[in-house]
Every structure is written in C-alpha cells, then in structure tokens.
Amino acid sequence: MAVNWENLWSERARGIVASDIRDAFKLTEKGDVISFAGGFPSPEAFPRGDLAQLGKAIIEEEGDVSLQYGPTEGYTELRTLIAEQMREQGIEVGADNILITSGSQQGLDLVSRVLLDPGDLVIVEQPGYIGGLGAINNYQGEKVGIPLDEEGLRVDVLAERLIRWRRQGRRPKMIYVVPNFQNPAGVTLSLERRRQLVALAEEYELVILEDNPYGELWFDKAPEPHMMSLDGGGNVIYFGSFSKVFVPGMRVAWIAADGAVIRKLAIAKQSADLCSNSFGQKLICRWLKAGGYQDHLKELRGLYRARRDAMLAAIREHFPKSVKYTVPQGGFFIWVELPHGMDAKAILPRAVAAGVGYVPGEGFHVDGTGKNTIRLAYSQASIPAIETGIRRLGRVLADEIGGLSFAI
Amino acid sequence: MAVNWENLWSERARGIVASDIRDAFKLTEKGDVISFAGGFPSPEAFPRGDLAQLGKAIIEEEGDVSLQYGPTEGYTELRTLIAEQMREQGIEVGADNILITSGSQQGLDLVSRVLLDPGDLVIVEQPGYIGGLGAINNYQGEKVGIPLDEEGLRVDVLAERLIRWRRQGRRPKMIYVVPNFQNPAGVTLSLERRRQLVALAEEYELVILEDNPYGELWFDKAPEPHMMSLDGGGNVIYFGSFSKVFVPGMRVAWIAADGAVIRKLAIAKQSADLCSNSFGQKLICRWLKAGGYQDHLKELRGLYRARRDAMLAAIREHFPKSVKYTVPQGGFFIWVELPHGMDAKAILPRAVAAGVGYVPGEGFHVDGTGKNTIRLAYSQASIPAIETGIRRLGRVLADEIGGLSFAI
C-alpha cells in the first residue's frame, strides 16, 4: 500500500506551509527583472581575494581539523574572538557564553526548541522578520504582534498588553526583536525604549530574543547599546551573525546567553546537526585575526549607504506622494506603505511585468493585515539598477493609485 | 528579577540531557590515551591537495555564488549529481527527490520534525545510532528497540511486535535503520530481511528511515540493494552523506524521498537554517565532476579494511575468550559484548588510566540494557595504535573478568 503522506505529517508539519515570500522570490527571479526582493548582502562586499588565499592555507596547513567534525559548541578560538568583540560592545561574556550556530536561523530554531511548548505566547514585532516568525511557528508558539513606528517597537503598546495578560492570568514567554535597522521595516529601537523593554522583561520574567544581524552596518553613527548590555538579570538571548558582514554562504553565526542556556542549546544542537561546518569557522578565525575587519566594515557601510541614498532619492522622485516609506539609518531595507485598500501582492505580477520585483509586506504580519505594505531591499542591486527599478515601480504604483481613485 | 531558566524550558528541552557518550569522549581526549571512541573518518582519507586547489578556484571563479545564500533545497547541480549516483544504485530518483541537508543529522531532525507528534511510536534498532535516537527524542517520539543479530535487525521479532500492536490498536509511525555496517554494532542487514522489512512497511503503512553513511565503505563486496530500491510504495526515506566518503567538516548530506516529502522537508529546513553552506556544496560538485571518486573510494576501503583487520587480529590475540565481538564487512565499528554482569561504563575510567578509550554501549540502548557492551571504532587510529590500544584494553578486561569470577 502506497504511503499517503498527508495522513502522516505531524501536527507541526500540517501548520507549516510555503510562504508567500518564497513565491515572490521565484516570481522576481526572471532574467530582466530588477529585484528588490532578496535581503542578501552584495557579492561585491565579499572579501574574495583574502578568502581564496586563507581557505587554501587552512586546508593545506590544518586540513585534518578544518575538514573534520568539530565540537558542537563551535571552536573555542572562534568563541573567544566573538566574546572579545562583544565585550568591546559592553556585553560581559566569555567563550562559555557563546554557541556557534549554522546561521542565526538555526539559533532561532534552537532557542524556540528549548523554550516553546505548543500554544506558548510569543510577542513579535509587526511587521517582523519572517525567519523568526517561521521558527516560532515550527514549535507551535502563538504569536502576538506589537506594532512599530519610526523608533521601533511600540513598547507602550506592549506594556498595556502585558498588564492585560497578567490580569487574564496569561504569561508570554518571550519577545523577538530586531532592534537595529529592522527586517523588514528598516527602523531602529530608541535607547529609551530599549531601557523600557529590558525593564518590562525583568518585571514579567520575559525572555528577550535580541537578533542583531545588521548592527555593524550603520551609516552615520553606531546604534544604541545592545539590550544585552542594558540587562541586569540575564533575560536577553543575543543573536549575532557573520552573514551580512562577512559572507552568508559559510553559515556561521552565534548565540550569546547565560551559560545554562548555552549548555541546553548545545545539547539540542547535537541532535539538530552535530556541529556547524568546521572550515567556515576556521576561515572566519583567520580572517578576523588577519586584521582589517574594521576597514572592511567601513567599506560595507559606504557601499550600502550609497545604495540607500540612491533608493531614497529615486523614491522621492518617482513614487506618488501618497506612498509612505521609512528612512533606514543602516542595514538593507526600506519599508513602504501604500494607500489603504491597495494590495501589494495583487500588484506584484504587474510590477514584475514592468521589470521590477519586491516582497509584499503581508507575510511579515501575524494577523493578516499589512496588505498595503512592501519591503524593498537596496542591498544587492547596483545604483543604476536601483534608479531604473524604482522608476519602474513608481510608474506601476502611480497607475494603481490612479486606478484606485477611479474605483472609489 | 533574574530569570530562572529551569522554569522556562519546554517539555521537550526537559527531556533532553547530555549523553554519556559525550562524557566518554571528553574522558578519552587526554593526550596519551589511544581512543576508539569517536566514529570519525580518518583525516588521512581527506583529499586535501585536491580540495585546497578546488576551494581556491571556487572562491576566485564563482565567489559571488559560492559565498552567498543558496537555495533551501540545495544547488540543483549537486542534487542532479546525487540523483545520478543513486540511479546507478538502482533507485529511481531525480533532482526533485533530493534535499541537501547540513549533515545527515539534520536530515534525521527534519524528518522527525515533520512526522512525529509527542508520544508517536518509533521503532529503532537496539543497539542503535545515538544521533538517530536523539533526533527522535527531540520530537518526543516513544522509542521501542528491536534487537540485532549478525544479519542485522531481527525482522521476525519486529513482525511479532507489529501483530501485537495491531491487536492493541497501536500504530507505529516509522522505523529507523542503518542497514550497512551499522553504527554501533557493525552488522549488515541481509537481503532476505531487507525484503521482509519492506513488505512489513507496506503492510503496516510504516515509514522506513534508511540511513546509509557507510554503504560505500565495504571491504569485500558491495552491500545488498538499498531498501529504497526494493520498495514499491514509496515508504522509504533514504539518508546519504558525504561525511565519511569525502569530509565531514563541510556538513553536506542529503535526503532522498518522494517529492511530497521533499517539499515538506524543504519548508521545515527554511526555518531550521535557511540553507546548507554553499561553498561545501560547490566543492563537492567540482570534486565529483573532476572524476577520481571511484579511485578515492577504493583507497578508503583499503585504509579501513587494514584497520579492521588489525583490530580483529589484536582482539583475537589479547581479549579474554569470554568476550564476544562482531566482524564488520565495512564501515567503522566493532561491537563488543562482555560477560554478563560487567559494566563497561564503570570500567572506562580504568581503561583510560591504562591509556585506552571506548564508548560504553549502554547509551545505544533505549531500555537501560547493554551495560556489558562496548563500541570500538577502528576508523581513526593508526595500525600500531590499534595494536597497542587493544593490548591495553585486553589487559584491563582480563583483570576485570578475573575480578568478576572472584566476586562470584
């Protein structure tokens, strides 16, 4: 009897379906479409020459280790280098507080795995990073979205909600936040709100997941202190990554947390993938020790700032005035709000036909709202492509808004 | 208020604890201990010269892709190469039936994730691979062990158990099997039993997880056909890996299965780690296309056969006659059974003091039995080290058995 897989999926698996965003990516992958969909770093930013040489040396000189299984927690040398970097940023950690993960996505998966039971209440930003939402979904957490504004998460709204939940006897377990140059909205959490959020977390014994892939990619000034450095009680689990500042293809990121959390996560990681790839860890170690990391960051900041500037200038010139957008101070993303009643998902095929792609914002929402929103990534396209793409998109949006007013 | 993490762990996380085996590894990592604990491939088997050159070329020539995020399913080129290899081994699959995973451990995690609800009945080999048991644990499957003999899983015992469960209205969901040169027991499932198992799986709508990391590392003749090639109804999910035949440090393995399963697993993988590392996939593609894979396999077979022979010869010479052991026809492991009443975990510190390490077999059992068993890996130690280590272990065991008879 042939297996009927539909009968066999776990409860969890029934709840996970392909995201709109993957569909959007596929749609925008056509040859002559200028895509602002993928939040990928620019390949021009990869230190290829260095890596070709360092990689060769690593295999020749220490291939017996760099090609072998490594420790589940990651190489102590890399964990030590990361801990040093974090201490320079005001976070008092040692190597024992660091777990190397196969990208921050694995970090989010492991933390959800060890903290979430089905039905547990999890607070998320709305709009929020789709990968974080996916990890929570996988462990059947119940997501509640808190809105953002230009200063990031509306901590005042959260505070009210926490009071209400306490009255109802409900206890949220964790809150997932991307404080710097947020994905997808591009906004940054203000210092005052960081302090408030840390205080709320302590008051309500709430775990803060502080996911910071973009923090080093600031344009004018470094972001405010990490919540982990403002935190007194150890409530914060911090996610750092080399994907945006080095290369994503090696899948090397880390979690920083209380030693008890790291130990539990390491046991979970053992069953998840045994260890992260050894070669990638060794490569990052050598590259960090070779010096030049700060210069590399300066280059990246310049590269992405120029692209942000180009996209903002093109938006100002070509978008209808009724379209709102955020002005990111770092990172990869601009968030666009179309007039109410518009549907970015319905517009996408027309945009693609006009030669430009984006991600409809609805998928970053947990309550079915956000149909009129769009995420634009300026990280990958060249400046001329950004100008052309935004001009094309502006024309499509102008047509749609024109059509909309007729329809009204 | 400081977080009390013990209050916050998920049900799942409460159930996962550090394994004895990890402790055993740590114990055997002392400088002058000859360790038969780790089932790692031999670093001498890594094609380092080739990889240093190929790796450099990949970064120089296609660094924009090989250092970037890749598709969640893995590169089509690699999936196509794997499907071709599998078709040569009698399994009718295409690239759409292949998902690249971050080691087979991730494959086991993802399959458990999409198939298991807490309490689901899972059949495992006893003794069974600890990583497979761990993945099932992580998703709170209820494990039932079926014993092995020299021909692998006792399918007759399984058949009786299935009849009994059917009468009780219980339905096992899947069975996890390492058919070739099993970890930890070194035994291989006979052709007749493969056919019987496939027939049982069809009759009971049971999913077979066929995990085959060692299949290519045979000593005298290639193993029997894969169950996936004997399978009519698509009940088999196959796990293949480059860790033992190429290098483990790149963390590249694959799952082969029905397209519906691959699509579900890909969605789960998206939330687990987005994608496997791109560089490792590209490296394997180039290395496979460069030819020489069959010659490389021949070398590996010779290397590991010589080590098996050395270990068996040393066991015959130095172990007390009351100690039983398996004679593997491939792979990395010999399984040792001490006289009843002996406790391999209690003996380990004395063995380490005498300069030799192993893994106590108890951790490969799901019912607390197996205290008198030991897993020996001959894959990593040189032949002189194997001879010395087994002589040392023989002396410790002789002392213990001597002591045992006095105690009786």
Describe the structure.
2 copies of one chain form a homodimer. Chain A has 408 residues and is α/β, with parallel strands linked by helices. The first copy, chain A, folds into 2 domains: 5-47 and 295-407, Alpha-Beta Complex (Aspartate Aminotransferase, domain 1), CATH 3.90.1150.10; 65-289, 3-Layer(aba) Sandwich (Aspartate Aminotransferase, domain 2). Chain A has helices at residues 11-15, 20-28, 48-66, 76-88, 103-115, 130-138, 155-168, 191-204, 227-230, 259-273, 278-289, 293-318, 344-353, 383-407, and strands spanning 34-35, 98-101, 121-126, 142-149, 152-153, 174-177, 207-211, 236-241, 253-256, 324-325, 333-337, 356-357, 359-360, 373-377. In chain A, the strands form 3 sheets. An 8-stranded mixed β-sheet of chain A has the order 2-9-8-7-6-3-4-5, sandwiched between helices. In chain A, strands 10-11-14-13 form a 4-stranded antiparallel β-sheet. In chain A, β6, α8 (191-204) and β7 form a beta-alpha-beta unit. In chain A, α3 (48-66) crosses α11 (278-289), α5 (103-115) packs parallel to α6 and α12 (293-318) runs parallel beside α14. The longest helix of chain A has 26 residues, at 293-318. Chain A is globular. Chain A starts with 10 loop residues before the first helix and ends with a helix. At the A-B interface, α1, α3, α5, α6 and α10 of A face α1, α3, α5, α6 and α10 of B.
